[in-house]
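Minutes, project check-in
Item: structure for the 268-residue chain
Input as provided by the requester:
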Amino acid sequence: MNEASRHDAWQAGDSYEIFMGRWSRRIAPLFLDFIALPAGLDWLEVGCGTGALSAAIISRCNPKSLVAVDPSEGFLARARTDVTDPRAEFRKGDAQELAIETASRDAAVSALTLNFVPDRAKALSEMKRVVRPGGAVAFYVWDYPGGGLEFLRNFWTDAAALDPKGVELAEARRFPFCTPDGLTVLAREAGLANITCEALDTPTVFSDFDDYWRPFTMGAGPAPGYVASLAQEARERLKDRLEASLPREADGSIALKARAWAVKAKEG
């Protein structure tokens, strides 16, 4: 496992929730509005994480059933705690080899996961396989190349100024395909058709600098993994630089924005 992918081993559900999950929960309803599917469907969610999209599907879409898979037992434990509706079933599984019957689901969706899957085309092909004729395959990822996740963009900008090697872990560098064109090409390569891509935008407001910085110290994901790798003195330099450079509102809050790219396709 290389240095970058090593930090992608998301396991700590509670830490992830504080770092990224709270923003994932803001994007999930926007995604469901975008795909606009009717009630009463059998859903599959690939890479459910701590259950942000799962909870939104249950509360907003009135599904007949939801099977949600993820490779992380830590994430699944958090999702099962947060989403207790009996229609939702959480299973350990691999996006590249889904243990789901062919043509058994009406919709297969994935939230903020695809960029971490080694064989992304295989994962999308698997999602296509399990969907019934006329069903939907849809997913979304953060706009890393466009700096759409502003709190991460600011972090890596300051980290690179102090340590040029640190930028090797930055998502914008590692996931250049997370653009409308790149995602559309990926979907076509997986055999999907009738493809639409749209931006999903949400504010990410931190109450103060501690609210911004603390999640980076909790070890869940590439940026927190990078912080954990730093010597104490280097960590304090990065913290001080960020505290000085981040924009502030009059009340001391830090108001930033997040953007994801959502893609949907309908199977003939």
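Outcome recorded: The longest strand covers residues 254-266.
No further action items on this chain.
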